[in-house]
Amino acid sequence: MFFMDLQKLREKAIQTVKAKLRQSVKEDVLIVQVVSGLEELDKVLNLLSKRLREWYELYNPEPSRMLTDHEMFANQILTKSKKDLLREFKIHDSMGAELSKKDVDAILNLANQLKTTFEYKHSQELYLESLMKSLCPNTTAVAGVQIGAKLISLAGSLDRLSSFPASTVQLLGAEKALFRHLKNKRNLPPKYGILHEHVLVNKVSMNNRGRMARTLADKISIAAKIDFFKGKYIGDLLLKQVEKKAGELR
Amino acid sequence: MFFMDLQKLREKAIQTVKAKLRQSVKEDVLIVQVVSGLEELDKVLNLLSKRLREWYELYNPEPSRMLTDHEMFANQILTKSKKDLLREFKIHDSMGAELSKKDVDAILNLANQLKTTFEYKHSQELYLESLMKSLCPNTTAVAGVQIGAKLISLAGSLDRLSSFPASTVQLLGAEKALFRHLKNKRNLPPKYGILHEHVLVNKVSMNNRGRMARTLADKISIAAKIDFFKGKYIGDLLLKQVEKKAGELR
């Protein structure tokens, strides 16, 4: 009888844990996945693009040097023939080898693969935007989709991000530089982590970037708290305050 | 007058170099490109597969553990719903979260991307096979497509591979171990490089693998010389000799 009770208790405990696991997957977990996925995708795109260029340059080297954007390069060589491209860039005497159709097709096959990978990346970015706007509209308004998502990914969840003070938000992504500073006092402390990618931080002069990052972190910290507790949307107001500060600092 | 001559001479020299560059692209250059491309593609497939699994396991963890092959995994989740998969593996109480259709679609989007990348890899392998069979049928017969192509890639060209003695062919791909041995005599010299991937080397017992690799390298070296000088096809004969040796060694 006692054994039976233990058995039942065990089953009940397992069921409870399973239910809790099922409920633990919230939108910010998905955001973390998409952000890491996008970072890996950039590596993939780089690998494929470099290989495509090296390979295609055997066949037609000159246009490759002139089309610097990888995605445009793939699209151009897929839609235009070697002749067309050479005429377009006014090159009369190409150094490229003549390859058989089968060999060119193998190269264009890679270009096609690269093109679909770029398209996949764009679709993931749109998906990330829709996730961010539904989960944390305020943070997204102030920080932008990419930086907002990276902040959540660095913090681990929106819950944790909302519990951080502004000074922590300011330095998220600069942990290495921060601990280097704390270990040997010779290095200056970092002024910003992932926030250095933000348009407004890049807009002001070098001297004022630390101040700008601080203001931005202040407002992001407020926005994250509002989002976590499902408050009203005041993203536009917060963004206006940050932009005003950016205008003052220059 | 003298200036004009120099100008003409210069143009002539440039034209000659351009023509030589055009002719320098031979089939083994393409083989080197495809081999490096395939190696990078394996990295890409690994990155995408790991991300897909981590992401999909939030939704449906149990089947992912049971489908170990990445390509099959992607195909299965694309064609079957969560319910079908759970029924197939007889799991009644899944730990996976319920996701909205939009979130599941984003995951399946990645699965689709992974699937097309696998398909692209297979098409590249077929292309490599056709290149190898037309450029060096003898080497391909003895070493196989993959190992033959890797040997050419390691040597740099069929020209160089054909000029190597058998002992060098045997150790291609084991340069690190070889120089470690030459530097401090404590380490034993390597017995084989890339040839350790060959079926016949794997078939014989551990003690005999060095001998087997040596025989194989002998025949590959002969085959590469025949291929480079466009000799007759005796691949089947060479392969038979290697297989006989493998039967003797066990």
Tell me how many strands of chain A there are.
0
Shape assignment of chain A = extended
Largest sheet of chain A: none
As a percent range, the share of helical residues of chain A equals over 70%
Looking at how many chains there are and whether they match, the oligomeric state comes to homodimer
Keywords:
mainly alpha, 250 residues, homodimer, 0% strand
Characterize the structure shown:
2 copies of one chain form a homodimer. Chain A is mainly alpha-helical and 250 residues long. Chain A has helices at 2-24, 27-59, 61-66, 70-79, 82-88, 101-135, 137-143, 145-155, 158-163, 166-171, 175-183, 199-203, 209-228, 235-249. In chain A, helix 2 (27-59) crosses helix 8 (145-155) and helix 6 (101-135) packs across helix 7 (137-143). Chain A starts with a helix and ends with a helix. The mean pLDDT of chain A is 91.
Can you give me a brief rundown of this structure?
The first copy, chain A, is an all-alpha fold and 250 residues long. Chain A is built from 14 helices and no strands.
Question: How is the topology of this model organized?
Answer:
2 copies of one chain form a homodimer.
Chain A: H1 2-24, H2 27-59, H3 61-66, H4 70-79, H5 82-88, H6 101-135, H7 137-143, H8 145-155, H9 158-163, H10 166-171, H11 175-183, H12 199-203, H13 209-228, H14 235-249
Helix pairs in contact in A: 2-6, 2-8, 4-6, 6-7, 6-8, 7-8, 7-13, 7-14, 13-14
